Amino acid sequence: MRRYSRITGTGSYVPPRRLSNADLVTQLAANGVETSDEWIVERTGIRARHFVDDGVYSSDLAVEACKGALQAAGLEAKDIDLIIVATSTPDMVFPSTACILQNKLGANGGAAFDVQAVCSGFVYALTVADAMIQTGAANKALVVGAEVFSRLLDFQDRTTCVLFGDGAGAVVLEASETPGILASDLHADGKHVGILCVPGHVANGHILGDPLLKMDGQAVFKLAVGVLESAARATLAKAGKTEADIDWLIPHQANIRIMQSTAKKLKLPMDKVVVTVDQHGNTSAASIPLALDAAVRAGQVKPGQTLMLEGVGGGFTWGAVLLTL
Ligand code: UT7
């Protein structure tokens, strides 16, 4: 009998410090940076984001998200034999945030590693975990997106610092006789490295280069709209499904205009799109599992429904996963 993988629990966590656009506008104005709630809402759909306090790391956010996912799945940490964390803001250069998370959860002993695909990280991680479960390399996995993007922001650059937030989301993915994950489609094109990057690195005890986020927003926007449509169509084709089979589109939460454009291209009404960008901003690899968990807990997304998850971001990377919850 063929082995499949299935999501059996979801969880998420955002740090308590919430900044509305008005809070951020005031903070930035004190440093001579001018922006407005109107500009941010109109261009992005973002109304608020959460930022961590000093001393809080991606693994701390991930622990809370994983506890929620484990509880929803009716599992304990010791049942987990694989942890994959998608993050671009790891706690340390090494070891991986997944290893740190594993120890904090008390899930020691199974495989644990990070995936770095920036805002596409969660769909990459989910695809890898699905493949490992299908082959029998793992049985019960935690797949996590966790980020503290506030640490990468240049608060003198209004074109980027208003967009991002911190948070974590997690799913438990278990081996199953019935299909959960139906198909996925991953891509990257490294010639676009420069349009979204944090170019600094650590060498000989120093940070060399710029350790803050740089983005050509319009270039990212144009690429994102095209690849989100193509990845969704390729994934549907692999699964033998059509747009009409999608109950919910859960795209990376970067910008409401990108989501609206993707939904239009896929002929999906916006009431089939899960939107949390207004409350969380862009939380990079955490955004899709955060949105998924919010929709599950709100009773919006229900077991048995078909979901299209889609990520796009630095690399340039993009991908989609079609699944039955
Ligand atoms: O996870 C994937 C990562 N990123 C993305 O998905 C981002 C994709 N790109 C975007 O979401 C949009 O390109 C942005 C939201 C970043 C920018 O929106 P836009 O409609 O492309 O604006 P723009 O860059 O064309 O800028 C329009 C104007 C400019 O002023 P001028 O030159 O027309 O006078 C900017 O200087 O808006 C100005 N501007 C701002 N004004 C107030 C840029 N940032 C701000 C700001 N507040 N925060």
Helix content percent band: 25-40%
The CATH superfamily of the largest domain is Thiolase/Chalcone synthase
Task: Return the average pLDDT rounded to an integer.
Answer: 97
Here the CATH topology of the largest domain equals Peroxisomal Thiolase, Chain A, domain 1
Give a short account of the largest sheet. Answer: 5 strands, mixed
- Rg is 19 Å
- Our count of domains comes out at 2
Ligands bound, unique:
oxa(dethia)-CoA
Span from first to last CA? 20 Å
What is the chain-wise order of helices and strands?
A: EEHHEHEHEHEHEEEEEEHEHHHEE
CATH architecture of the largest domain: 3-Layer(aba) Sandwich
Give me the side-by-side strand order of the main sheet. 1-7-6-4-5
Structural class comes to alpha+beta
CATH class of the largest domain: Alpha Beta
> What is the overall shape?
globular
> How much β-strand is present in the residues?
25-35%
Low-confidence stretches: none
Question: What does the model show?
Answer:
- The chain is of the alpha+beta class.
- The chain folds into 2 domains: 4-178, 3-Layer(aba) Sandwich (Peroxisomal Thiolase, Chain A, domain 1), CATH 3.40.47; 182-324, 3-Layer(aba) Sandwich (Peroxisomal Thiolase, Chain A, domain 1).
- Helix content is 34%, strand content 26%.
- The protein contains 10 helices and 15 strands.
- It has helices at 21-30, 37-44, 58-73, 97-105, 121-135, 158-161, 217-239, 256-265, 277-280, 287-297, and strands at residues 4-13, 18-20, 48-50, 82-86, 111-115, 140-148, 166-176, 181-188, 196-197, 201-203, 206-208, 214-215, 248-251, 306-313, 317-324.
- The strands form 5 sheets. Strands 1-7-6-4-5 form a 5-stranded mixed β-sheet, with helices on both faces. A 4-stranded mixed β-sheet has the order 8-15-14-13, sandwiched between helices.
- A hairpin with a 3-residue loop joins strand 14 and strand 15.
- Helix 7 (217-239) runs parallel beside helix 8.
- The longest helix has 23 residues, at 217-239.
- The mean pLDDT is 97.
- Oxa(dethia)-CoA is lined by residues 35, 39, 43-44, 119, 158-159, 162, 196, 215, 217-218, 220-221, 224, 252, 254-255, 258, 282, 313.
